[in-house]
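Appendix B, record 7
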Amino acid sequence: MRYVLERLQERSTWLGLIALVTGFGVSVKPEVSNSIITVGSTLAGLIAALTPDRER
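Structure tokens (predicted):
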């Protein structure tokens, strides 16, 4: 459980989850698919822009 909670705090996890959910839009109607892709891309962009990079 701790591992999962730590992964949920990472930007790459959220971007990966959004990419997976966005990818499921391929199997629905084209109108809905375009909306899913737009929302997924927008969310990924917001997360990437608003979260800091980790310093190592």
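Remarks on this record: The chain has three helices and no strands. The chain has one domain: 2-50.
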